[in-house]
């Protein structure tokens, strides 16, 4: 309970109230920092797909094989669709993880008499570490499959060759024994 934690602090009473009394603008600074962080996250989410599309077009358009050049027609809208698909799958995955944690905690509560023993605390910590690992690996797998793989496929599909294509007829694969 928060009131018990603040009551045991040096001097007792409301710690946050004392901090605000000593530094009158402290709460405003915290609110400003939180709003700035939220704004940064929103801007990153809004601009990252456009940046990703731009970089991919630059990379592809910079490839040269003698007289042959590559040009990309990758559309930024398609990259946004890939990111939106990732967000949708991530929300569904997070919902499944939360439901899994809920049922696992209920099961541990029944198994260990309400979860009040030290053994149940150890089991809960191990379970939460397991859920963390599954969540991290699952989110990265979703990102690789829904964003990275889609963007590379789109980049390959929208790339065109320009220049003297007769050079391609003279290409021979050769290796050494």
Properties at a glance:
177 residues; mainly alpha; three-stranded antiparallel sheet; 5 helices; 3 strands; elongated
Question: What this model shows, in words?
Answer:
The chain is mainly α. 71% of the residues lie in helices and 6% in strands. The protein contains 5 helices and 3 strands. It has helices at 2-7, 15-22, 26-61, 76-111, 118-157; strands spanning 64-65, 68-72, 159-162. The chain has a 3-stranded antiparallel beta sheet. Strand 1 (64-65) and strand 2 (68-72) form a beta hairpin. Helix 4 packs antiparallel against helix 5 (118-157). It starts with a helix and ends in a 15-residue tail after the last strand. The model has no long low-confidence stretch (mean pLDDT 86).
Describe the secondary-structure layout:
Elements: H1 2-7, H2 15-22, H3 26-61, E1 64-65, E2 68-72, H4 76-111, H5 118-157, E3 159-162
Antiparallel strand pairs: 1-2, 2-3
Helix pairs in contact: 3-4, 4-5
